[in-house]
Amino acid sequence: xxxxxAVCALFAAAFFTVSVVISCKSVPLPEPPEVSVCSPxxxxxxxxxxxxxxxxxxxxxxxxxRLPPFEWNNAASCVARQHSIDMQSNDFxxxxxxxxxxxxxxxxxxxxxxxxxxxxxxxxxxxxPEEVVAAWMESPIHKPNILSRExxxxxVGFFPRxxxxxSRYATYWxxxxxxxx
Length: 181
Description:
This protein has about 180 residues and is an alpha+beta fold. The chain has five helices and eight strands, in the order ββββαβααβααββ. The strands form three sheets. A four-stranded mixed beta sheet has the order 5-7-8-6. Strands 1-4 form a two-stranded antiparallel sheet. Strand 2 (about 10) and strand 3 form a beta hairpin. Helix 1 (about 50-65) runs parallel beside helix 4 (about 130-140).
């Protein structure tokens, strides 16, 4: 059985660039995780294998530049996954949430304080952690966040499109980069 392959054009917005490739290969995606609430009182966030792999690959890129590794931030990862879920559920690709929130507001709602600076990387359509990190590293907008000396912590969120969804991308990815006072 022949499979066809389509390459989607570069999608650009005012504050970010996302490019999508619909791949010919079959990549098993994890099941969509339970929707978790990101608050200080919530159950601890459980990262999935794709989120942990993006974290690992991001630190590999930092080590190539002789930068210290990021520390994992569990609360920021919950916020990042929630944003990926929001983008998938509401079929959009932007840093501002469907409720109008920016990432600082979402991080503060999750109980993360003393944030001096934060940045966000988002992407849609990349099927593997390797593909999305490679795409971010090729992007003049996203790469500086990964290689910034200022950021010390990162949260990673991933959400695959459920089978019954008609959202435009197969996957949704978010990274939250943090520097604390």
